[in-house]
Q: What sequence folds into this?
C-alpha cells in the first residue's frame, strides 16, 4: 500500500447511526494510478463522506488530494475507498488558459509531501 492511515481520533458516535473518525494519511514512494486504497473496514460498514484536508507542502507544490468512496448503499471493503492525487507541474506553460489537473505519475514518489488529514463519516 502506498498510503498509510494513522487513526487520530474515533470513530465516535455523533448521533444515532452516524460515526466520525479522523486519520492522518502519509504516502510512500509508490503512488498507484487511480488512487491508493485506504482500508476503513475496521471502523466502518458504510461511508457517507470522506473529507480530505491538505497541508502547506501540498498547496505550495500544486497537489490536490481527492477521495473516492463507494456508491450509496455499497458496503466498505478494503479496496473501494481511495485517495487520489492530482497536481500541476507548471501552469505557466498554458499561457494562462484553464487546464485540468492531471493525476500524479504512476509509481511516483509522494513521500516528501507530508501528511494530510482524512475525516470519515459513516456507520
A:
Amino acid at each position: 500500500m502506498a498510503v498509510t492511515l494513522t487513526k487520530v481520533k474515533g470513530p465516535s458516535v455523533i448521533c444515532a447511526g452516524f460515526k466520525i473518525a479522523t486519520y492522518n494519511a502519509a504516502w510512500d514512494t509508490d503512488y498507484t494510478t487511480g488512487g491508493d486504497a485506504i482500508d476503513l473496514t475496521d471502523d466502518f460498514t458504510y461511508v457517507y463522506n470522506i473529507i480530505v484536508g491538505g497541508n502547506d507542502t501540498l498547496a505550495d507544490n500544486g497537489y490536490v488530494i481527492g477521495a473516492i468512496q463507494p456508491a450509496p448503499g455499497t458496503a466498505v471493503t478494503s479496496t473501494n475507498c481511495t485517495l487520489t492525487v492530482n497536481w500541476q507541474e507548471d501552469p505557466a506553460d498554458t499561457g494562462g488558459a484553464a487546464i485540468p489537473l492531471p493525476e500524479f505519475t504512476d509509481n511516483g514518489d509522494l513521500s516528501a509531501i507530508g501528511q494530510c488529514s482524512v475525516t470519515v463519516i459513516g456507520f
